[in-house]
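User: I'm putting together a small comparison set for a docking exercise, and I want a reference complex before I start. The sequence is below, and the ligand is D-glutamic acid. Could you produce the 3D structure with the ligand included, as structure tokens?
Assistant: Of course. I'll restate your input first, then give the structure tokens for the complex.
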Amino acid sequence: MVAAGSAGAERPIGIFDSGVGGLTVVRAIEELLPQEHLVYFGDTARAPYGPRSVQEVRRFAFEIMDLMAGHDVKMLVIACNAMTAAAYEEARDRYGVPVIGVIEPAVHSAVRATHNGKIGVLGTPVTIGSGEYQRALAATGRGVEVFCQPCPAFVELVEAGDLFSEELIGLAEGYLAPLMAADVDTLILGCTHYPLLKGVLHWVTKGDLELISSAEAVARDVYARLVSEGLLRRVAELGTRRFMVSGDPGQFRAVGSRFLPELREVEAVPWR
Ligand code: DGL
């Protein structure tokens, strides 16, 4: 076990993803926990993770969690489905701090939301290929039917700031057609970049499907764990925010500040 430093509620929460997608989780955590100090890392130099192997994503996840442990975080939030699929189980006992993933919260929200028991999952190729959503949905024991769809092109478009092009709409129509033909009534956005595509996804599905993003459920889990572990920061003033990326800070700020306006300073922390 790698000790993560001194105890105490004043330490920051560490949140990380391959890029801007994890900011959707930051936004939800800020809504419930504005007083918490947050440290964010986006591995933009190595994004997208989607086409990589589970082994490689696992290695990246532990490199980032080691980096976060160096910032004396009191909790690790894996704001990435690919890294949750590849490393969550192993990470849970390794850092001496609570570790929160994004797959279980999305699964529980989806099972609660579905009326016809048919759930679609959109994700990156590595997440869908890992089988973790299929396993977690089966483990609920609710007998739901699961239809998974890898969406290999979405993350790169979002990282480039494209949330509305004709190309994007065409891709969304292609990815969603088999799920709509299967009559799913609930769609898990199994990548933290995809809530940024809710506009196009609602448009293509004609508003007929319940879109499940894990961000809000993850924020509720974070709140509950902070309380149960005695780590909640109980002060009235806003917490500090620190954003770091392994790639170009300007590109990250340009895209991320469109939905997280407080995102101004971004530090470059290149891998050596
Ligand atoms: N936001 C990451 C996820 O939730 C995207 C992974 C990628 O970079 O492809 O899976």
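DSSP finds eleven helices and ten strands in the chain. The chain has a mean pLDDT of 95.
User: Thanks, that's exactly what I needed.
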